[in-house]
Design brief:
- The protein has one domain.
- The protein has 5 helices and no strands.
- Helix content is about 80%, strand content about 0%.
- It is mainly α.
- The radius of gyration is 20 Å and the shape is elongated.
Amino acid sequence: MGNLSLRPKGDFTWTAEYRELYILTEHWISDLQFHKQDLHFLYHLIDKYFIWLINEENLGEMRHLSSGLSETNKNCDRLLEKTSKHLTHLGELIDDPFKYDSHKFRTEHEELENEITSFFKKFREIKKETFADMEPIIEKEVKRLTP
């Protein structure tokens, strides 16, 4: 799958006004915060069913899953911090358009967007994997509790 783009079609990053980039960056922060909450839910899901997940046949999967969630959580925190700094710089650029080199700043904006896009793709994969691993365990528990 190719690089998914969050920006409008064309050369938006290179032609947009700083205010437009600011609004887009605010959306990225909102999306990252949502994913952070989603990660919290996934951790809670695993904690709730942990006892059923730690049997010998699931142990390797659990380690892989926990490692993936941990790495995804760290990446989310890193991107939230990086995007927040970027938003601050955008605010400074709106106040003083000559504060930073425009070409360099727009290149950094595009690179940040690609990092966020890659994160979202990896997040979807770990979320899908988590649900796939959890589904049979939850189904067993539901059957056990159903009279």
